[in-house]
Design goal:
The structure is a homodimer of 325-residue chains. By secondary structure, the first copy, chain A, is α/β, with parallel strands linked by helices. The first copy, chain A, has three domains: 86 residues, Orthogonal Bundle (Arc Repressor Mutant, subunit A), CATH 1.10.10.10; 117 residues, 3-Layer(aba) Sandwich (D-Maltodextrin-Binding Protein, domain 2), CATH 3.40.190; 94 residues, Periplasmic binding protein-like II (D-Maltodextrin-Binding Protein, domain 2, 3-Layer(aba) Sandwich), CATH 3.40.190.10. In chain A, 40% of the residues lie in helices and 25% in strands. In chain A, the strands form four sheets. In chain A, strands 3, 4, 5, 6, 14, 15 and 16 form a seven-stranded mixed beta sheet that branches. In chain A, helix 1 packs across helix 2, helix 1 packs across helix 4 and helix 5 packs across helix 10. The radius of gyration of chain A is 32 Å and the shape is rod-shaped. The C terminus of chain A is likely disordered. At the A-B interface, helix 1, helix 3, strand 2 and helix 4 of A face helix 1, helix 3, strand 2 and helix 4 of B. Chain A binds a DNA duplex (30 and 30 nucleotides) through helix 3.
Amino acid sequence: MDRLLQLEVFSKTAELGSLSKAAETLRMSNAAASRHLSALEERLAVRLIERNTRRQWLTEAGHEFLQRCSTLLNELAEAEGAVSDRALSPNGMLRVTSSLSFAMIYLAPMLPAFRALYPKLSVQIIAANRYPDFIEAGIDVAIRTREQEPDSSIVVRRIGQMRRVLAAAPAYLARRGRPEHPADLARHDMLIYNHANDPYSLRLSKGSAAETVRIAPTLDSNDGQVIRAAALAGLGILIQPLYIVQGDILAGQLMPLLVDWELPLLTMNIAYQNRVRLPAKIRVFSDFLVNHIREHSHARIWMDATRQTTHTPSNSGRSIRKQNP
Amino acid sequence: MDRLLQLEVFSKTAELGSLSKAAETLRMSNAAASRHLSALEERLAVRLIERNTRRQWLTEAGHEFLQRCSTLLNELAEAEGAVSDRALSPNGMLRVTSSLSFAMIYLAPMLPAFRALYPKLSVQIIAANRYPDFIEAGIDVAIRTREQEPDSSIVVRRIGQMRRVLAAAPAYLARRGRPEHPADLARHDMLIYNHANDPYSLRLSKGSAAETVRIAPTLDSNDGQVIRAAALAGLGILIQPLYIVQGDILAGQLMPLLVDWELPLLTMNIAYQNRVRLPAKIRVFSDFLVNHIREHSHARIWMDATRQTTHTPSNSGRSIRKQNP
DNA sequence: GTCTCTTTTCCGCCTAGTGCAAAAATGGAC
DNA sequence: GTCCATTTTTGCACTAGGCGGAAAAGAGAC
């Protein structure tokens, strides 16, 4: 028997002065209400409501207990309401990790709008060019270019696909000449972003023609800004998402190369741990980011994004460490 | 499902860091504990404890809810404990009514010893020479001489039987002569206590002889002290419980009459409303009074009392008015 | 990959809780 | 005193739901 319901029957009976009315209010039969109240009195070994078929009144014990259990029922309702509400109204701290470039160019600029929508939610951006372990780093959300996670409990959701470009400084081109064909790249100094899929094999296509070039990196890094700085210094030809170097190109400090050829797109994903009930903050952030990218995307940087979860493991899958309370 | 048990499972799991340990502590199976916790999370629509088979930790919502429900569980245990304790440790106010004489001679003198035993219980003695309605007067206990109650919900329990005496002032006897035989009483001025059974018919016995005398009261009253005062003033012959006039007789102010003859005993009862669970204060007071009378009775005043409830109606019988909270 | 241990879920059983209706009680009207 | 309407309590039959055991699933240690 639900002991809370016993307290509710007692409280409501005292309030309304009638077991029958309490039963009606609590949507149960008179018999059930009578049994709940009797069970409570038996458990406490005391008569709480002295009553007959015509009248009833609280005993002294009943008076005292009523005050206490009314308070308790209110507090419980408030506690349960508060905790249910927080599932709908995200608050606390959200920890996001992404590349430095993505953080600078996309995450930071969009935060004011996000915070305006969710004032109780703090966002901490961890710019990292390695993939930290979710658990160890306390990461809620990661923006990543890789499409698969070794951890089966991580959900990967596509944000979109980005164009990439080949570009070099004018000084480099003056010194080493300009590549006219994809095959020429094999003889050039290449600056590679090693977090891309198969970064040392480059596939370019023009119309129906396609060429795959194996390149030997002069420098490879997991940091887009490092690669950008090296290219600006004339150390070689970079291949990077357009969003990172668009400003340099417009300023004439980097010259785009083989612009008639198309490079493979870079898929950008958001990843988070799958949970029985996804915390609201992760849900709202993901939705906001995807929508923000979609609304502010330029065709030259982003291809049309499709909302798609590429991998959803079973609900019981977890890979997490017990935290000290 | 017992919602309080759900809270207990959650609280204990958080405390011990393991559903299995919580189950063991709460003496239930692992399966049951798992279901209770899941049911609570479903009811609140939020994950309280993130967990897998190897580790678990509180979510933010879980942290907040744990603080609140730990408090609630403690408060409820305290409330239930307090109300159960009061059933064992009577407190509050007990209202007792009796005749003025009984109050002065028996109740008041025994109160110090009673209060020493039950310091939290206040006793209010309502000296009355009429029988007030239990409900209207808020009476808990009544000391009465009548043996039956019109209200079937009232329990009557015998305290004992008291000797009665005939006595008159010397001045009256000098003026009117001394009755030598019960029949002589018919020619005397009689002072009658009208709360006795059949107060106008007097049956006296000596050995195997018995005489019944019909007497016409010069004065009758429901107050023993009024009758006593009239006798002391020489207005007539009284018949009263010995305990009321013993002091006057010893002082020579009243002369006992027809002392070889025995008068009918006066039955003294305690009465209270029958209840499913008799409030502790009524129970302890009744027991104390009966035991006190037994221990301090003098053969000359009390005959041996027998513990006996003369009428116990069915438990559902009540005659009470709903009180405003 | 195997082992161990915990959590979750399935299954069959059983009991506790249900509503209905009758019994009992109560108080007001007459 | 009797009748009536209404409430509380209790008996009864039924079933929904909660149980424990065991299997399934998962996770970390080795």
